[in-house]
Specification:
2 helices; Peptidase_S58_DmpA
């Protein structure tokens, strides 16, 4: 259903129940390090990411 919503110009948004997954192929630089930094975007900054993801997937298909 999410793919079809994207196809008709609907985009993901926070607080609507969409499940988004992120995968990374990076290597862990220091696995023994027990602390880290978390970076995030504020809710009103994510719309462009949802739009870009939809366009990228459509082009890939």
């Amino acid at each position: 259903m999410s793919l079809e919503i994207g196809k008709v110009n609907g985009i993901g948004a926070d607080l609507v129940g969409d499940i988004l997954l992120e995968f990374s192929t990076t290597n862990v630089s220091n696995p023994s390090l027990m602390t880290g930094t978390i970076e995030f975007l504020f809710n009103n900054s994510t719309t462009f990411l949802f739009e870009a993801t939809i366009q990228y997937v459509e082009e890939a298909i």
